From TrEMBL:
Carbamoyl phosphate binds at residues 55-56, 105, 136, 139, 264-265. Residues 2-149 form the Aspartate/ornithine carbamoyltransferase carbamoyl-P binding domain. Transmembrane segments: none annotated. This is Aspartate carbamoyltransferase. Catalyzes the condensation of carbamoyl phosphate and aspartate to form carbamoyl aspartate and inorganic phosphate, the committed step in the de novo pyrimidine nucleotide biosynthesis pathway. GO terms for cellular component: cytosol.
Length: 310
């Protein structure tokens, strides 16, 4: 595997191998006072973020450092991008400086794919950490890791994804990956927050949250991405919460084993009540914790796996 740009086209064997590697790395670090593995010593990982991030950026940095890689963080505001440098020139500069892997987040859909094309000759790997409204593959993988941990398996499970589907790159990556792993996915959202062509996705679509909850093994709440919205998509935040927010009463409609996920950041009181977010049924902090091990696994498969196999 040279790059991780998308879950679309990621085959089941590769996805499962990454998830299994994350499990093995998690066990390898369990109980260690110093959480360090020598696996990527001498490698350089650069995070290049054109959008704000807490969870993704921090977890990639920790993942690289726990594997003994040299990690360098570059933000658009603190780089030559602020002087007008193009994405291509920035990428080529980072490759020339010795980057073995560039982890990129960019507001334009397809940016990570363009970056991979420009860096092909240099042999630099690219990880898509979110490109516009397109995809966020490592988020989907860590969600799958959390579902495996909580439910035992993903195959045959019914997973509900609720909220702002239209603007969510997390949804697109999860739909592809969960379908590949054998899950049944239902999208629950108002018609105004569903993309054109959703009927062609491997999902079922519903507008009634209460009707779907009793049959779900897991529900993933999505943040309403107001920063990407131009115009009115629903009457008010209060009415959205009444129709699609997960509160304690709705949590009671779900099976006892069902788990609650959220990719963050959460808008407490809108898509999720604080009592739900902080309940034992919620796996939100587990997602963050698993994200570090999952991103360690991705870096391993990109930068170390082929060497060890040869």
């Amino acid at each position: 595997m040279r790059h991780l740009l998308s879950t679309e086209g990621l085959d089941r064997a590769t996805a499962t191998s990454i998830l299994d590697t994350a499990d093995n790395l998690k066990r390898a670090l369990l109980g260690r006072e110093v959480r360090k593995l020598p696996t990527l010593r001498g490698r350089t990982v650069i995070t290049l973020f054109y959008e704000n991030s807490t969870r993704t950026r921090v977890s990639f940095e920790i993942a690289g450092k726990w594997m003994s890689a040299d990690v360098v963080n570059v933000s658009a505001g603190g780089s030559s991008v602020s002087k007008g440098e193009s994405l291509r020139d920035t990428a080529l500069t980072l490759a020339a400086a010795g980057a073995d892997c560039v982890v990129v987040r960019h507001p334009a859909s397809g940016a990570a794919h363009r970056l991979a094309g420009w860096l092909a000759e240099a042999g630099t790997s690219v990880v898509n950490a979110g490109d516009g409204m397109h995809e966020h593959p490592t988020q989907a993988l860590l969600d799958a890791a959390t579902l495996r941990e909580r439910l035992g398996s993903v195959e045959g499970r019914r997973i509900g994804i609720v909220g702002d589907v239209l603007h969510s790159r997390v949804v697109r990556s999860n739909v592809h990956l969960l379908a590949t792993l054998g899950a049944d996915v239902v999208l629950v959202a108002p018609p105004t927050l569903l993309p054109v062509g959703v009927q062609n996705w491997p999902v079922t679509v519903s507008h009634e949250l209460d009707a779907e909850l009793p049959s779900l093994d897991a529900v993933m709440l999505l943040r309403v991405q107001a920063e990407r919205m131009h115009g009115g998509f629903f009457p008010s935040a209060r009415e959205y919460s009444i129709a699609y927010g997960l509160n304690e009463n709705r949590l009671g409609l779900m099976p006892e084993h069902a788990v609650v996920l959220h990719p963050g950041p959460m808008l407490r009181g809108m898509e999720i009540a604080s009592a739900v977010a902080d309940s034992p049924r919620a796996a939100i902090t587990d997602q963050v914790r698993n994200g570090v091990h999952l991103r360690m696994a991705v870096l391993y498969h990109l930068l170390a796996h082929e060497e060890e196999a040869s």
